Amino acid sequence: MCKFDAHAAIALYNVDRWSDGYFTVNSRGNIAALPTRSLDRQIDLYELVEEARNRGLNFPLVIRFQDLLRDRVETINRSFASAIEESGYRNSYRGVFPIKVNQLREVVEEILDAGAPFHLGVEAGSKSELMAALAIHGDPESLIICNGYKDSEFIRTALLGRKLGKQVILVIEKLEELYQVLHLSEKMGVEPHIGVRVRLQSKGAGKWATSGGANAKFGLSTSDVITACDILKRAGKPQVLKLVHFHVGSQVPDIGTIKQAVREGARFYAKLQKMGFELVYLDVGGGLGVDYDGSKTTFDSSTNYTLNEYVRDIVYNIIEVCDSEEVPHPIIVSESGRATVAHHSVLLVEAFGSIEKKSETAVHATPEDPKLVEEILDIRDNLSRKNRLENLHDAQQIRDQAQAMFDLGLLELRPKAKIEMVYWEIAASIVENFRGMRYIPEEVKEMETTLGDQFICNFSVFQSLLDHWALGQLFPVLPIHRLNELPDRNGTLVDITCDSDGKVSKFIDLNDVKETLPMHRFRPGEPYFLGFFLVGAYQDIMGDLHNLFGRVNEIHVFMDEDEESGYYIEETLPGSTIGQVLSLTQWDINELTRRMKTQIDAAIKNDKLKPSEGMRLLNQYERSFSSYTYLKFDNENSHT
Q1: How distant, in Å, are the alpha carbons of 42, 43, 163, 560 from that of 36?
Q2: Residues 424-441, mean pLDDT to the nearest whole number
Q3: Three-state secondary-structure class, residue 1
Q4: Is there a domain that residue 463 lies in?
Q5: What is the domain count for the chain?
């Protein structure tokens, strides 16, 4: 057998293709994070897990690599700076971070701190996001872009920012908003900065394609843009129009879509310039994708372009359009949220059990067994490579006969169990016989998937991987340790919710979507940790309270050369407690305790409980409100 080592694990799980240099497998067989993409500065995830557990943090656990977040901000901004210098572009770049991608304060503050040298701003699409953006914004040269539908309160709040001298741009999504902005700005005595979001004919691709194109939810049609221009001129305020904005969709997989959209958006900018509006900015929106599967294709979970190609194509196409129209080059604005934050966050879960089809128990026939048991055992003992499909069909027929007899009450449980156990043993042997063959029949491929184990993991898909459940978004998943051992099992992951949809059964692959993941045999009494990677965009904030599980525990990690390990845990954020999630759903904890006390008092009065036992149970009930919502194993079962 070939040696299985770190290099083999990297190839098996495509780590070098989807990680963009931020993760690898080290010589100990553990996943290591490289927040600055330097092999000399690694963080062993398994060691990090041990430190977190020593601090009393239970699973599931989110790890944020703050240095990785900074590296993403710097990489995107420097890529634009390089393309601008290389092409002779006659203006600059101002990025904004769309808060909706990850509204967590620590994340937004880290991004703005890292982006300060580049005058990185923020984008807000709701009143709540705008309130946060105004408070944390401190750079007079950076932007606050206000997208989304707006009411008078939203507009007044944005104009407050203008009163304070901030570069707040209200992007008009429908004409009624323009009337409100002009009226309220006059009333407040401040000149607004206005942008128009144009609805392009160019349409995106992938899962979020509907956010662009002629039928998009947001934006002005060409006729609406003309009407807006006429309104501004009649009001004597053409100078307040500062920005043209467009958005072709999130996670755009094909660079051709981006090129076409940029050219169309740049043409709107140029034509408006020639109409007498001295525009300053062209906002190309979001769309910069993340290669989740590493295939470098136009598949929904991939991209067929690099960051540098994306940036160069934006810059060069704007130059070409503006030069042909003989208008000034605009300041380029982009809202690259997903590509900024996806890599920095890892969700770690613990598998605490597995459900296997194939049993390790030896099966033998007894005189009491029906003939079907002998027949299926004979198939198992005389498997032939030559007749393997015939063997599979015969075994399937016997299993079906056994089920029919059981339904009629003609077969007892013990022989039924034997037949099922031997059937799966035969199926596994046949799948193994086909392994490595040039042609594998579809029924054998389906059998291999069916044979996969189910690993039971302590987390909720609905809370931590909402895009996977709702949209089929793929994320890289793999064990974070034991990667110097050959994964001898294939399986799917199931969570601890009571919903049958709480599972992960689609996995990344270079050629297609895999239905099982290579994993190691679960060893009772030993920990088995799995990591979900590239989950920093949207997943951190979009999860719901399905089964009232709530937010998970979280740690923030910083690199530090003075530390012996090369890093330190800067902050730990506890996940939701039982009391907190109950309060969020209008349950009053004091009232619940009062009701429970009434029931315990009644049980004591009726001699069902002793008073001391009743008080002990009530105290236990009250203490549980402060407990973590996810499973917490006792010491003897905690795999330590």
Answers
A1: 9, 11, 39, 12
A2: 85
A3: coil
A4: no
A5: 3
Angle between helices 127-136 and 105-115 (to 10 degrees): 50
CB under 8 Å to 252, separation ≥6 — which residues?
204, 205, 206, 258, 287, 288, 289, 303
Residue in the structure block whose two tokens are 């399986």: 491
Measured between alpha carbons, how far is 502 from 69 in angstroms, rounded to an integer?
29
Query: Is residue 300 in a domain?
Result: yes
Co-location of 122 and 214 in the same domain? yes
Lookup: tokens for 135: 């408070």
Q: Which residue in the block uniquely carries the two structure tokens 């984008």?
A: 123
Backbone angles phi, psi at 171, to 5 degrees: -90, 120
* For range 577-593, the mean pLDDT: 91
Q: What is the CATH number of the domain that holds 443?
A: 1.20.58.930
Which residue segment(s) compose the domain that 205 sits in? 89-336
**Res 227 pLDDT > 90:** yes
CA nearest to 174, candidates 215, 218, 213: 218
Listed residue (539, 75, 473, 534) closest to 342, CA to CA: 534
Contact 456, 355 (CB under 8 A): yes
Judgement on whether residues 309 and 442 belong to the same structural domain of the protein: no
Three state DSSP letters for 118-180: HCCEEEECCHHHHHHHHHHCCCCCCEEEECCCCCHHHHHHHHHHHHCCCEEEEEECCHHHHHH
Do 299 and 413 fall into the same domain?
A: no
In terms of Cβ atoms closer than 10 Å to its own Cβ (0-12, 13-18, 19+), residue 18 is buried
If one counts every other C-beta atom within 10 angstroms of the C-beta of residue 606, the result is: 8
pTM for this predicted structure: 0.89
Tell me, yes or no, whether 484 lies in a domain.
no
Considering the domain architecture, whether residues 329 and 428 belong to the same structural domain is answered as no
Q: What is the pLDDT of residues 527-562, one digit of tens each?
A: 999 999 999 998 877 777 778 888 899 999 999 988
Report the share of the chain in percent with pLDDT over 70: 96
Question: Same structural domain for residues 227 and 106?
Answer: yes
Pair 111, 340: CB distance under 8 Å:
yes
For residue 290, the domain's CATH number is: 3.20.20.10
- Report yes or no: 466 and 543 within 8 Å, Cβ to Cβ: yes
| 310/444 same-domain check | no
